Amino acid sequence: MANILVIDDERPIRSALREILEFEKFKVDDAENGALGLDLIEKNKYDIVLCDIKMPKMDGLEVLEKIIQKGIDSPVVMISGHGNVETAVDALKKGAFDFIEKPLDLNRILVTIRNALEKSDLVQETKVLKRKVHKALTHEIIGESEPINTIKAMIDKVAPSDARVMITGANGAGKELVARQLHEKSSRSKCPFIEVNCAAIPSELIESELFGHEKGAFTSAHKMRQGKFEQADGGTIFLDEIGDMSLSAQAKVLRALQEHKITRVGSDKDIKVNVRVLAATNKDLRKEIENNNFREDLYHRLNVIPIHVPALNDRKSDIPLLVNHFLTMICEDQGIPLHKVTEDAIKALQQVDWTGNIRELRNVIERLVILCDKEISGSDVNLYANPKG
Hints:
Elements lengths: L2 E5 L3 H13 L3 E5 L2 H10 L4 E5 L7 H10 L6 E5 L4 H9 L4 E4 L4 H32 L8 H13 L6 E4 L6 H10 L8 E5 L8 H6 L16 H4 L4 E5 L6 H13 L1 E3 L6 E3 L3 E6 L3 H6 L5 H7 L2 E4 L10 H16 L5 E2 L1 H8 L6 H15 L3 E2 L1 H7 L5
Parallel strand pairs: 1-2, 1-3, 3-4, 4-5, 6-11, 6-12, 7-8, 8-11, 13-14
Antiparallel strand pairs: 9-10
Helix pairs in contact: 2-3, 13-15, 14-16
């Protein structure tokens, strides 16, 4: 049920609008002047405001301006018995949703209200989406432990440069987060950040994925396609799990790093690219080099600045901060009240062997939010978090 406020100094108009709107199942408040109307708007949330223009003390256009100044989202429909084109245009320019002349037409009022409600729904949906996008684009590193503070300091020093960075660490430890922070704090932050999961792409397709291909280069190449290096031009390319890249693709990546050029599959034309390369792996690349699975020259090209991301088991003092972060994020996403976490729950979480690192912790917190009512206790953690050892 929508809440509507009617502001008009004529009692018969207020009464008529109240009767019509309440018959249509709307909840209606009314005010006899602009000052009283503004007072109600500050105290209550209205889906629509119907406001007369000609009123003593404070006219409708002034009310409209104050609503806009206060950042109130309620659509305002101006009504007037002294309307003309100039007045209507002025009202719309100042932010009114619509303008209706007196005598009021019932059908016109209801259509306008319906349209205003639809706009309000769209505005709210847009705000929700913007919040989600903002959260998705915010890659804060959570933690105050010594190894995390060391990484944050390293990022601040390295990010402004174009130095290549090799990020090592176990799966789920947060290597991608470090890469995104390096990009966001660099001069390339307004340009693309392109991620390539080298382990997820079949070896026969990795070259096409990285460098693109020309039409007809192979059976399924029905049209020309840009590769990830071209897409990242001016920005950053993040080669995740680079230890799983084929040797032939490694050779082409090495050339791209040396000459700042790439060649699409099926072409002999060089394409200049300007990208910063960040790489990550959970493998010991020195052992991979000994086993002839990784090129030593590429390793040295990429490993200009090494950053090691510690496992969660090595930074358990950060667990309270991480729990609060994930708890807030998950409860907001699910539209439920923030759950409370008891001290014994935190202690129990710190006793878990987090072989899946941060990713596993986040999954466990989501599981606890879903399965527990309002409060998460130590016994809940012991029941649902599958502690090991």
